[in-house]
Every structure is written in C-alpha cells, then in structure tokens.
Amino acid sequence: MFRKRNLVMDLWRRVDLGDVEALISRGLWSRAMSTHSKSALPVADNADMDDKQTGMFSLAGELASLVEESSHVDDTKPRRRSRMELKRSLELRLKKRVKEQYTDGKFSDLLKKVIARPETLRDAYDCIRLNSNVSIAERNGTVAFDSIAEELSSGVFDVTSNTFSLAARDKTKEVLVLPSVALKVVQEAIRIVLEVVFSPHFSKISHSCRSGRGRASALKYISNNMSHSDWCFFLSLEKKVDVSVFENLLSVMEEKIEDSGLSILLRSMFEARVLNLEFGGFPKGHGLPQEGVLSRVLMNIYLDRFDHEFYRISMRHEALGLDSNTDEDKPRSKLRSWFRRQAGEQDLKSIPEKDIALRVYCCRFMDEIFFSVSGPEKAAVDIRSEAIGFLRNSLHLDITDETDPSPCEATSGLRVLGTLVRKNVRESPAGKAVHKLKEKVRLFALQKEEAWTLGTVRIGKKWLGHGLKKVKESEIK
C-alpha cells in the first residue's frame, strides 16, 4: 500500500500543474495519464499493473477534479471593481450623453436633455458617494431623482430653498451658504458635464484638479523646466467673484455651450451665494471655507483665457524677437513678417542686447502661477508686466504676491505650492575632482598648522622651564 502511494506521489511530482489544467480543458487527461503510466511502469506482472493503474487513476482523478472545480470557480466568480473603476464607468456614461448633444460646433440643451434626467442625477449621486468612500451597492431612497429632474426640465427648481447657511461667531459675522443634498447632486451633474465639454480644450500648463494632472505633476513640470532656466517668479491671485467676473465667466462658457437654461441656473446659484467661488488664499488660523463643487471647474474655465494668452506672450517673445546678428541688408523672413502682421507688432525695432535663445515656461495650479524664463532679465521683467496687465485688465483679478524675477540659482529659493523650489547646479566630474583636491589641500594645511602650533607651544614650555631653572640656580648662589 505504501509502495503504491509513493509511486503515485512520485508520478504526480513529475506532472506540471499548468499542463494538467491544459489537458483538462482539452479533455485529454485520461489519455495522457494512461500513456504516462504505460511508459513509466515496467510490464512485469498484469495484476500489479492493474493495481498500480487503479491507484494512480483514483488519486489523479481526484486531483484533476479539484483543479477543474477551482478553475471553474475562478472563471465564474465576477471580479470586484475598484472605486475608481466604478467612478470612471459612471462618468463615461454621462460623457456619452453629453456628446450626443454636440451639433454645429456647440453643445446645446444640456440642461433638459442631459442634466435633467433621473439616470444622470442618480449617476451623479453615486459619484458623490464614491468620493465619500461609501458603497453604492444599496440604493438610498431619500433623494427623489424624478421630482428633481422634472423641476429642472420645467425651470421651477428653487435654489434658495435647497440651501442652508452658517454664521460665524466672531466679529465679522460672515455667512457661509451650503447646498442641500438635492442641490449638491445637481451641482455634481453640472460639474461632470462641464468637465466633458471643456477639459479637452484646457492647456497643458494647467495642473489643477484634472485627471492625472495634480500637485505632483505640477512640481515635476516646474523642476524639469527650472533646471534650464535663468529667472523665475511667482504670481498669486486674489478676488472674491463679483457680478462682472461671473458675467465674463458665463460669456466664456457660451462660446462652447448654447443653453440659456443652464446659464440661468448657474446665475441663480451665484445669487444664492452657494457657489463659494473665490480666488486666493486665506489667513492662517481663520480656517478654510467649504469649497463649492463647481468652484474648481469654473476657475479652470475662467483662467483658461490666461493660459491661451500666455502662449501668445511666449510666441511674441520667442518667435517674433529679432536676432542680435541680423543686418538690415539681409532679406527678412516672410514667416516672421507674417507673425508680426498677425500680432500687430510691425513697429518692433528693438534689438536684444545679447544673442540668447529665449524660452518661457509657465505652470498654473488653480490660482497660483509660476513662471521661469531662460534668457535675459529684461525679457523676464517684460513677461511679468504683460501677465500682470492681462490678469488685472482683462480678467479683473488682483495680484497678492508680486515677486520680482529672481535668479533660479538663488540660495533662498522660491516657495511654490507649499514647497521650496531651488535650482541646484550639477558639477561636472572635472569640477568635482578639483573641489575634492581643494578640500584635501585645505585639510592638509589645517593639520600642518595644528602640528606647528603644538610644536611651538612645546618648545616655548621647554624654554620657559629652562629659564625658570636658571633663575632659581642664580638665586641659590
């Protein structure tokens, strides 16, 4: 009995589990086992052969059935999707509904045909629960999606009745207006719709609250560009959104969305002060307000005008500048002349002081903007003044932190996004060898100086002792 078991176990160790599963799937297990058993065992006694084959087939059959059952269970058991996969699937469904409304270069009737639908509001509610790390397996019946959708489509949805306010206890008596669950669901649906419409058109210098483009990507972009830049400066915006800024925001949105109902709904939210859209930071110790659901995407939509203006500024300084070695007798570039006619810069006659390849880099994270310039200081000052002028005159925003262009190699560095950014120059191997040799020479000179000092002190002590000895001898005599 033990001999049979040892023989079967030895045979089973020679068989690979992957080969067994392949044979089971093809239905060739019995044939392979019979062939293997015939080739492995000597034909000596028919009775012993039958007993051995019977033992092998019984044990092998049981093991094969276990492998088959485990593979069958793994195939039929559905894989549990992660929280991010569920959220992406919900947003993908909304994205398809939004793209169906694209006609003649604009999105139309988004409020009635996309937002004011019970399935859209239900998907937005599930996104809110996923962001709060709440399971969406069980449906919650507290939110009446059908009635909300009917009110939105008919235009009778009351924003003010779906808000509640909190007043501060200090002397300021500031009031913070927060949305109810129903209004928050509507805002989440509007947020997803606006991101579908505007996110593909956002600039690459924008790293704020976008998929795959957050604080880490912004710092990486800054470090890569700062390594080959000469000057850098930082601008921080501050503005409590007023009527003029909000109307400019709606005009920007109307360039891609043709829906008066959506504009009216957003305007009613602004009048109810439930958007909580504000540029700039807040004093330490005062806390942070409850940020609105729509504040991030609305801020990106509004500041996208600056992102495109930055490209115009960089093009004018990089592509329209005259080279220092350009003579009047040489033929002018037709492409450069065309650029000048388009930008209205035909009267540019100034020649740079140095022949430097000018490059301008920018990174915007929400309302914080970082600039780095590879070129002369004068170009950095001009770019800074033009950027501040556009932000103040065209976007009607205030600048709180107007840092002057400073060298990137400055020891103090520049604080961006709560991180101290500083350029470290990498030395060449020859420079490292020279510095290492200088350090060795300095240490050798220091050791020699210490040895000389110790020797001098020792000699002085000996002379002093010898002198005192002579004085005592003379006194004795």
Automatic annotation (TrEMBL):
One of its GO terms (cellular component) is mitochondrion. GO terms for biological process: homing of group II introns; mitochondrial mRNA processing. GO terms for molecular function: RNA-directed DNA polymerase activity. This is Putative COX1/OXI3 intron 2 protein. It comes from Noccaea caerulescens (Alpine penny-cress). The lineage of its organism: Eukaryota, Viridiplantae, Streptophyta, Embryophyta, Tracheophyta.
